[in-house]
Amino acid sequence: MDLVHLCRLLRLQVVDLAVSLTHKSLPITCEMLGLPAPDRGDTKREKMANSFDAMPEVELPRLAERFLELHPPQPPVRNEIQDTLWADTAAPAIPKRFRREVARAMGEDQLYLDAQRFDDLLDRLWVLDNDSFAVLLTGVDHSLRAEIERHVHRNPGDWSAEDLFDRLGAFSASDRRFALFLEGLASADVRPDEAAQRRLVQLVNCPLSGCGVELRETDTEGGYPVFTVVSTHVAPTGRPKNIIFASSVKPDLRFRDAVNNDIEIVTNADRVLVYDRPIGIDGIRWRDLQSWWAETRAIADDASAKRTLYRRLRDSLPQNSPPQSSLFDAFHRGFGGAVPDLPALLPEVWLHWDPRTVRERGPQALTRFRMDFLLLLPQGVRVVIEVDGQHHYAREDGRADVARYATMVAADRDLTLAAYQVFRFGAEELQGNAAGVVKKFFEALFKRYGVVIPPSQAVIC
Fold this sequence. Notes:
By secondary structure, the chain is an alpha+beta fold. Helix content is about 45%, strand content about 15%. It is built from 18 helices and 10 strands. The chain has a 4-stranded mixed β-sheet, with helices on both faces. Helix 1 (about 5-15) packs antiparallel against helix 3. The two termini are about 15 Å apart.
């Protein structure tokens, strides 16, 4: 994210906001935006400018989001701020060719069922009133909004979907904006009919498949399906339902209600954690995990919830694997205050669970039961981190064990084919001071998948 550009954009807008405020309402507005109290300056603009300049730069993205929500600027500025915020946001790439093919595929169906909600969607994403000066000169409205009213609403068929996409700028828009547009067109707001939603999704998924993208059903809202643009190259087709983790022993579990997929830990419940909240397209962040932990353990104090959760997760790590503990500690030390907004590093996660032992199951036995660490990233990306000690490739006497190594790499292939992204650390890498190695890896990982790391360096604007 270009924080310098965001700072300049936002500062101008926020300071200009002071003109419409009174000296009495200025502190209230600053508080609602999350700005420091405006206690310096003679004029309203000076006070607002000083308040903005005192804002920690790490809070700039959140300030931008609050400003867009509470005091939305003109659409061109709004879109520039949004695109700056979204620059590092995970969004599957949809090249222009495939966008055009999507538009042509939509020509086989209606653009919308609810005209007002369709217009609301366009208003949220595109610049429609771009010819206001000409209206003043000629008295004739040639804005895009007026053209849409004339060629889409009053005279259906004048414009094809491809014409509309072209006029909106959809073919050259950011991937994130185009994805939001497709998700909006497939939503129950624009199409309040489930059959119509699914028909549109089927139409557009055919051309989208050519670039490894699809509209996938990820949730429900008000009884209607919710569709999200995801990459088919990195995201598994299913949705996670139960995360069984932080377990140093094989869980003794059963289905309390198999229809609802309700799991019950029968014995040693204190040695196993089960995250059973709905997991959306944003994955699981530390703040989500901490909220779940605080609620299920009735912990009212945030600091206490954070401290006890961290200790519980760390205690689940194998005592005979110091490198695993080293990676866990290095991750949290390296990112510090940014951790709540980052994907949670879940230790000792159960992938396969079989009530029978490997010996009882025989040739059909699953090859990997547990993952050292799992991260659930945005857009359905699942990342597995494994720490390889000697036992991964050698016998107890230290001699190489080719059969054991072959079993490990076969399990990796199965995970990769199931759309998990597997990364391995050698135990030697994590001896001593592992902080630099670990942080460098996760910075590169998050950049690859569009996870924004809250900045820690000052931004001058």
